Structures are given as C-alpha cells and as structure tokens.
Amino acid sequence: QVQLVESGGGLVQAGGSLRLSCAASGLTFSSYAMGWFRQAPGKEREFVAAISWSPGNTYYGNSVKGRFTIARDNAKNTVYLQMNSLKPEDTAVYSCAADAFGLGSTLTMSYEYWGQGTQVTVSS
C-alpha cells in the first residue's frame, strides 16, 4: 500500500531553519506531483508548496514564498521542504501528499495520498 512518511520536524527558534523529508513507497513516485500542506490548531489546512512530476515545476503559498524551497529526489522516492527564516506563524503540523495527475496543485482535493504529518514549532 502507499505510504508517505514525514520526518525532520521539531522545535526551532525564529529565524532558524529546518528541512522536512517525505519518503514515499508503494507508488511510482516519479509519476506523481508532491505537495506540502500545513495545519495549525484551530485553522484550516493551508497549501505550502508543490512540485510537479517532471520537469519539477514548483509552486508556493504566498506566506512562504522566498523562504521555503521544495525539491524532489526521484531516485530516493523522497520530497523535501527546506524552510528558512522561520517565523512563529509557521508553527503547524506539516504533511506531504501525492497527486497522480502529476502537474502540482494548491488544492487538497487534488491529492490522493497523505502522510501523518510532522510537527514544526517555531519559538519567538
């Protein structure tokens, strides 16, 4: 079965960096677009970033543009989210997701598979 497993979350001070990883199995990873979403307590799930299957076009939410970078390594079936200049408002559970259509989407409904998420906490 398809599994998406996130790692790399944790506690960091404002201005710091973290790199999240999402390891995929049970699917033809290189054919899927991959996305990152986040959800803070009491808030709706928010689009963070997405990357298409090929040639790896990238898309970002307005709140993270210029600070976060999404990348993929098809040989390792892994997608990454490099997060720099972190702010307290970036605190959330970050989840990766897979989209078989492959082009990359900002919409949660486009994604068939989801990971369990990893907590990111940014202290001020």
Helices and strands, with pairings:
Elements: E1 3-7, E2 10-13, E3 18-25, E4 33-39, E5 46-51, E6 58-60, E7 68-73, E8 78-83, E9 92-99, E10 113-114, E11 118-123
Parallel strand pairs: 2-11
Antiparallel strand pairs: 1-3, 3-8, 4-5, 4-9, 5-6, 7-8, 9-10, 9-11
Structural description of this entry:
The protein has 124 residues and is mostly beta strands. Helix content is 0%, strand content 49%. The strands form 2 sheets. Strands 2, 4, 5, 6, 9, 10 and 11 form a 7-stranded mixed beta sheet that branches. The chain starts with a strand and ends with a strand.
Task: Describe, in short, the structure shown.
Helix content is 0%, strand content 49%. The chain contains no helices and eleven strands.
Helix content: under 10%
Principal-axis shape equals: globular
Average the pLDDT over all residues and give the rounded result. Answer: 96
The total strand number stands at 11
Which percent range describes the beta-strand content?
Answer: over 45%
- Structural class by sheet pairing and helices: mainly beta
Query: How far from one another are the termini?
Result: 40 Å
Topology as a string of helices (H) and strands (E): EEEEEEEEEEE
| Rg, nearest Å | 13 Å
**Largest sheet report:** 7 strands, mixed
Stretches where pLDDT is under 50 for at least 5 consecutive residues are: none
Q: Note the total helix count.
A: 0
